[in-house]
Amino acid sequence: ASQVGGCSGDETTWAFGLAQYPGGSRFAATEEVQVYREGDYLQVLGRHTLDSVGMRSCAAEPRRDLPRRHLHELMGYSDEEYLAQQVIMAEEGYLAVAYEARGWYRSGGVVDLAGPNDMKDASAIIDLALASKEWNPDPEQVAFAGLSYGAGIALLAAAYDSRIKAVVSLSGWVSARSAFFENGVPNRIWMEILLGTGITTGRIPATFSRMVKELEKGNWSHCKDYINARGITTNEVAWKSLNEREVPLLLSNNFDDALFFADDDLHMQEVYKGPLKVLVNQGLHGAAEEGGLQKQLPWQSLRGNFVWSQARSFLDHWLRGRDNGIMEDKLLMEPSNRLPFFFWEGYQRLAAWPDAEGVEVVTFSATPRGPGLHGGLQPAESDGPKEEAAITEESVHFSHLPGIGAGIPVISDALRSSHINIPNILPWASRRYNLWYYTALPEKSRYCGIPTVSLDITPNADKWQVVVYVFSVNPLYMGSLVTRASVACWNCTAGERVQRSIDLRALCVDLGGVGHGLALAVNLFSGFYGAATTSEDFSVAFHYSPSFMLSMPRIRPGQLPAASAVIV
Questions:
Q1: Could you report the per-residue pLDDT of 138-182, keeping only the tens digit for each?
Q2: Number of Cβ atoms within 10 Å of the Cβ of 337
Q3: Dihedral through CA 212, CA 217, CA 220, CA 225, nearest 10?
Q4: Which of 129, 153, 279, 290 could hold 252 in an S-S bridge, CB 3.0 to 4.6 Å?
């Protein structure tokens, strides 16, 4: 990796701290320091011993005694992790210190997965910066920011170190259980990706490998203490600390992120007591932030990246007290309009989640398929007659290839984030392995928020799973995936009727129009998720009761601007 300008590393391994910089002279050399020049800003690549572990770090600080230059002249096509934003922040008067977490790449030790040792390291990096008389940062104005793994460390570090006054978490997590075992379903693909990445680029502890194996077998009780301690909402001590201190948080996640889910950020707005701003962007894990770290196209601006510009404004507000309006919109969601990037229309403004004034919940009840192609979705508020269904239940059976699905793991998500959605031809799907329900949506509306599905089912096995999909359907009954989720049970009673309500992945999408509609589909297997059972004898009966319904969050007509490109 290139060393031009400072530090190199993988996007999952870095975090950085920020402090308002009141001025000062050059900083003192540290152990094994190499000094590089990046335009008008001095970069330092060093190795510091923290708790007997060598940590790689770098810093960018302001230089007021040299002429200012444009960022593109400084950065060009830099492939460094945080360096682009470090230089921008240095130009704006911050000392920005980045470090490579223990166990990854050139840092020593073993990966701690945002555990106690990572918390000690985060505090030690702050100690190191504040102890430097040459750097001379303001100890009362310290923030922590990170992307992916660094984002999780930033949130937890703020809970354990009261010197941190604000947090920017980009493509991170608030609940580690949601990432690995939401609704009792192992996130099989991404656990294997993380394990493979850790083995090839770091030193993963045997604990993590054992945890993955246990979760794939549904043994949550063997892993829950370890996992819950590494999430904000599931760690009682960390959650209490953040809420009591009301630490300002900026959370940014992406709709197609299949590892750390955007809906967790929305749920945070329901329960967190401190100031909270949420951005939900289109793209895969880390994709929305990547444009502020490395140029994808020659004309792109690192400074102009929306997520990072919001992050800098957030820090200006909470560290410097600038009244820049950053907190006026508590929730910004980027609509998926499936158009090329040059038709980008900005972000949908919402007051927060839930937003009772701006969003209404539209509920559809499932009605039987019978001998037809599909069942129906009857609006719950419909004034039409609601006759008792002659068919009270219908069943689906297990298959590894049910015919309706989300595509190929990772690849299909990447295509969808690039506005390429390979459709499901719903009428061709096997009746034995799928049930799907349809309603026409003659008027185009925007749906933003967290959909939910309530199920009333009787599985014939003591271990079971159900996969749920929502599609936008065109006049040819070709369905483009809008959202999905799964639910599982590993120790139930075969033949026992159960009711479950689950959140689907957050969305912000325009649905409907002449000839278009909405479909809900259910089956018993998806390659995206771990399965509790793969028995060919496995089946589930779906009961047509008031408990079998789909709820969709729809923007109220005329209540909010259709969309707004907000650049603070």
A1: 889 999 999 999 999 999 999 999 999 999 999 999 999 999 999
A2: 16
A3: -30
A4: 279
How far apart CA 432 and CA 145 sit, in angstroms, is: 49
Query: What is the distance of C-alpha 194 from the center of its chain?
Result: 15
Neighbouring residues of 519: CB distance < 8 A, sequence distance ≥ 6: 374, 377, 426, 436, 437, 438, 470, 471, 473, 479
Tokens 């599982």 map to which residue? Answer: 488
For residue 51, count other CB atoms closer than 10 A to its CB: 12
CA gap 478, 436 in Å, rounded: 12
CA 47 to chain centre: 31
Return the CA Rg of the chain: 25
In terms of DSSP bridges, do strands 435-440 and 375-379 run parallel, antiparallel, or are they unpaired? parallel
Q: In angstroms, rounded to a whole number, what is the distance separating the alpha carbons of residues 15 and 179?
A: 20
Q: For 184-212, what is each residue's pLDDT tens digit?
A: 999 999 999 988 888 888 899 999 999 99
Say how many residues make up the chain. 568
Q: How far is CA 153 from CA 50, 278, 461, in A?
A: 16, 18, 40
Task: Work out whether the CA dihedral 275, 279, 285, 288 comes out positive or negative.
Answer: negative
Q: Are 86 and 60 in contact (CB under 8 A)?
A: yes
Going 199 to 205 to 211 to 214, the CA torsion angle's sign is positive
331-333 and 276-281 beta bridge pairing: parallel
Signed CA dihedral, 154, 160, 161, 162: sign only: positive
